[in-house]
Specification:
alpha+beta, Alpha-Beta Plaits, Acylphosphatase-like_dom_sf
Length: 153
Amino acid sequence: MVLKDDALAFLIYISREAEVMTAEALANLLSSAREFNVSKQITGMLLYRDGCFMQVLEGAKADICELFEKIAKDSRHEKVDLLVLEAAERRYFEEWSMGFCDMARPGDKELAGYSAFLRQGLRAANAPLAPCIPSGFLRVFADDASRRSSESA
């Protein structure tokens, strides 16, 4: 099935930082990503660990593909690998212009659902073969983050 450019879709990619990013550089990256994403109605989240990124982007197929192409050309990223591009039934991160989790924080390392994949290393070769599995990692994160925010309210 061919996705129309305006169809709701999600895209998951992984990459490595080209140079070690400081906390300030990472904060600046997130700030500009959030601003851009709001303007294009793109939602999603970003996982970061040991210089590796795993990100989901949700929105119109044309918009998320255009953004992915920009990311792939961005000098801050290297080894950019597309894992999943498929139609979305709904947005899983509709409240987030760009949710973020630094997986190196002690409490986040062992969250259910994606810790084994992250321990193996964020490389396309280590990604589960079924596209639903990487997207499942992100759904677990979204559900857990929603639960944690409602518990702290």
